[in-house]
Amino acid sequence: MRISGLASGLDVDSMVKELMKARKSSYDTMIKKRTQVEWQRDDYRSISSKIVDFRNNKLSNYNLSNAINAKTSQIAGDTSAIKMNTTSSTAAGIMTVNVDRVATSAREIYTVGQGSLGATTITINGEPITLEASASTGADLAAAINANMSKTKATALYNANTGELSITATETGKDKLIISSGPLVPTNNPGNVEGVEARVIINGMEYIQDSNRFVVNGVDFTVKAKSTVDTTISVEKDTSKIMDTIKSFVSEYNNLLGLINGELSEEKNRTYLPLTSDEKAALSDKEVEQWEVKAKSGALRGDSTLSKYVSDLRNIVTSLIGGADLGGGQRLSVGITTASYTEKGKLVLDEEKLLKALESNPDEVTALFSDSTTGVFRKMMDTSLTTLTDLSKIAGTSMSSSDANASFLESSLIGDRIRDMKSKESLMLARLNSLETTYYKQFSAMEKAINNFNSQSSAISKL
To answer: Which of 78, 190, 207, 236 has the fewest CB atoms within 10 Å around its CB?
Structure first.
């Protein structure tokens, strides 16, 4: 804290501030230039996060077989004998299924009595169940079995009225309930059930297994009852799901393209520069916000990396506009065209034409999008990765995070530039501080001289 100007009567602080003002303007210019670069880096991060989301969360999901190659099964015949679960994208053709036997879970009923069992041990599927209390009952035994169901692979139910204990395997099939009964007495109760395997005939071939759920040729179904007649399962493309996938792709593509084109064409307001802290203090919060919106605009205008990315995307979608390849030089329209010139490459989807194409040539249409080397999704994923790599080198943006607030990488062209700018700012600030100190020393020397002169004058006047 400086106290000055007492002898001279001058406002030294104001004078030093004015002297420093011109010098400080160069420093303020440096800060403003760095702020512009930081804003540009922030814009790169925002765009990069959208590209990551488009590539990793959208395109990769569209390219999954259960999205673009989704299939469904139509069932006819004894539909009460079979329940359809799922159909893999690899499934194909027609299957004729006849259910000869449904798998069952084994169940055995024992007499345990209504009194105390005492300390006892039984073994179920190799897992010992032990009751050590002398007053243990059938209810205690049932509870112990159920508490260890994951190990015994069995559940139990005790009937206090009859003193019977029912033990049932949790899995269907043969030899799924092996019990060393210990003190338990087996019964001839008609409720006893022998566990058996399921047996089905599919396209004339026998399939036997413990479970009632079968997965054959990519078709997943569960047998529920013995067939009265053959059941036919026909596998076909799920055009509804594929339509939804393509519609979603067109929408997400247009959103990303519109966002990037907006950044590339956004006007740069060169008269609006970042505000210093002093300049902000002279404005209201609303005025500062409005100013910075204009100052930040156009940071990526005409950016070469993003311009190339847009060009690459538009080149890729030319195959969609050209249609599906039917061979022999013939192509089939999939109902995708580009909008007017002013829309800058956005796609327009004719759902009716796409549906007709899917119904007539489903494999060719889906290959247009999902082929592992030439498909649109694969090509867009590759060019997106190339762009993300370039943006990471330029601005230190993440290649895997869709978080618009993700941290920047340490090393990048812009990161190095910002560090260099900050270093120069520090040197400039040190020089300014040194100069300000020099000014104050000079005024202090002047004040001292005036004080000495005043003292001398006072002494002379008293002579």
So the answer is: 190
